[in-house]
Amino acid sequence: MEKTPSYFITKESPRRVHSMSRHTKLIVVVRDPVTRAISDYTQTLSKSPRLPSFQRLAFRNTTTGLIDASWSAIRIGIYAKHLENWLRYFPLSRFLFVSGEWLVTDPAGEMGRVQDFLGLKRVVTDKHFYFNQTKGFPCLKKPEGSSRPRCLGKSKGRPHPVIPSEVLLKLRDFYRPFNLKFYQMTGQDFGWN
């Protein structure tokens, strides 16, 4: 088992993974690309407080509203483009697409899908989770033999900066055709409007 967010978006990864094992099962966690871009920016901002505003980075030209798709925070959310690259090496049946939103609202349901996809007995259920109000995320209840529950690290669940609604609308318009293509490719509607 291997995990990294950059595999899905790195051009060379599908070929390399395929050469290692063409039978690999691939689990890709995706979330609303607008929220994902803002989260990415928030993470970077926490490490580099002098970063320009989200709007300055997201647009090539703020007057025309031209989105800068070369900025990694934006580019990563063009899931259809990345999936096309992977489908050159792996059939769709080798993929499970997990909704980041559903992972928060129904972690047991999404983990059930993961266990099914991997051919595992369903042992992780809703009794293993509780919602952490401070984090705004579900956490694993205290595992046996451990003194405390397992929750996402300090970098998760931090508040996002307020982004003007017109910026959000332009981003939603930008991502809409890519999202629709991704839904069509995966046969799954994630409900990102």
TrEMBL record:
Family, as annotated: Belongs to the sulfotransferase 1 family.
Pfam families referenced in this protein's UniProt entry, alphabetically: Sulfotransfer_1
Domain called Sulfotransferase: residue spans: 14-176
Keywords from the named record: Glycoprotein, Transferase
Protein name in the entry: Sulfotransferase
Assigned EC number: 2.8.2.-
SUPFAM superfamilies noted in UniProt: P-loop containing nucleoside triphosphate hydrolases
Gene3D superfamilies: P-loop containing nucleotide triphosphate hydrolases
